[in-house]
Amino acid sequence: MKSKRIVIKIGTNVLQQSNRKLDHKLIGELAAQIAKIRDHGHEVLVVTSGSVGAGRELCSVDESRNTLASHQILASVGQARLIQIYADAFRKHKTTVAQILLTRGDFGLRKSYLNIRNTLENLLKYKIVPIVNENDVVATEELDLNFGDNDLLAVYLATLIGADQLFFLTVAPGLLKEEETQEGKRSTVVEKVEELTDEILQHCLPVTSAGGKGGMESKARSAGMAMSFGIDTYILDGKSPAGVSDVMEGQRRGTHFVAQGRKIRSYQKWLAAGALNKGTLVIDAGAEQALMKNKKSLLAKGVTRVEGQFENKDLVEICNQEGVRLGVGRADCSAKELRHQIKKQNLPKTGGKDPQSKPVIHRNHLFLE
User: Fold this and answer.
1) The CATH number of the domain where 87 resides is what?
2) Distances in Å between the alpha carbon of 21 and those of 74, 126, 210, 211?
3) Does the pLDDT value for residue 262 go beyond 80?
């Protein structure tokens, strides 16, 4: 079997028992399965939730009063406990683990992005299993640094290290859809997704899974992003730890989001998945055509609205008139300068070089989805 590099994201509810504390037995089973996968020559990076659940084992906090403060307390106490549990579980298989805590802000600067990549590459080189979690003590809903859930973090990391496969372990057997039968409605697993459509997203429950921050829609959207980057992605039942090994051995499990085979350069990976976007540019139909079909740079005259505050060389999202995200790019001017240019669009021309012909985002600094 060809050696592969894989990322396994383990959800909160997979790790928790009904009492909302960690399931140590399951963590041990997951460690055993990961050790088995590594014995076959594969490289594994783990993205884990569960720090809050681990914190509940060590301290009692009133979570009903100040949810942010209690979340931070439990996460900060639980993070040390969580990595200890993982370390103990992997030690039984003579495997060393490393703890890495990240926020989205760590991906915002290319230098720090490359530092993260180099660290992960060296850990994998020395046969160490990186255990990655979002730094919940810093990344809160009140700060523009959070991923919102570890699903997106897993995609960022899978893209960054050039993973072949990404596994989302959840409490569902896969992406479910309802079918009409003679006995009534029943839920069945969608075995394969080759394009993330509105119909696929309608199969997702609109609510967040109990105890977690993601939910099936988050996983489906994240899986759709990963497969667009050429990464085969799976949503599996994490309560059955052998599922990842089964898939790698060619068996069908859960929902497979089929990689589209698109290969992107390191710089584009950063633009696509590692960027902390500082604003949004809404463009007209002509500019959309120029970008998507004609492979041109984005000019100021094609921008109809500027959202957010950004400076020269900051990263911004690009959306069309319907609000559909088209991609991301590095701005060649500030939001203030661009707004000023847009205001001058309808003024009489006075001769000289037209400022509207200057690229707002050069083609070399664009990633289009």
Assistant:
1) 3.40.1160.10
2) 12, 32, 13, 11
3) no
* Per-residue pLDDT tens over the stretch 141-168: 544 445 556 888 999 899 999 999 999 9
Determine the Cα–Cα distance for residues 171 and 352; give it in Å rounded to an integer.
63
Report how far residue 89's alpha carbon sits from residue 29's, in angstroms, rounded to the nearest whole number. 8
Range of the domain at 309: 277-368
Note the pTM of the prediction, 2 decimals.
0.84
- Final residue in a domain of this structure, among 250, 268, 286: 268
CATH number for the domain that contains residue 359? 2.30.130.10
What integer is the mean pLDDT of 56-69? 80
Beta strand segments in the chain, E: 5-10, 43-48, 97-102, 129-134, 165-170, 176-181, 184-189, 192-193, 232-237, 255-257, 279-283, 298-299, 303-308, 315-319, 325-330, 359-361, 366-368
Show the tokens assigned to 93.
């298989």
For strand 43-48 and strand 129-134, is the pairing parallel, antiparallel, or unpaired?
A: parallel
The residue out of 246, 268, 290 marking a domain boundary is 268
Determine the pLDDT at residue 354.
54
Asked if residue 192 and residue 148 are part of one domain, the reply reads yes
pLDDT in tens, 207-218: 444 444 446 887
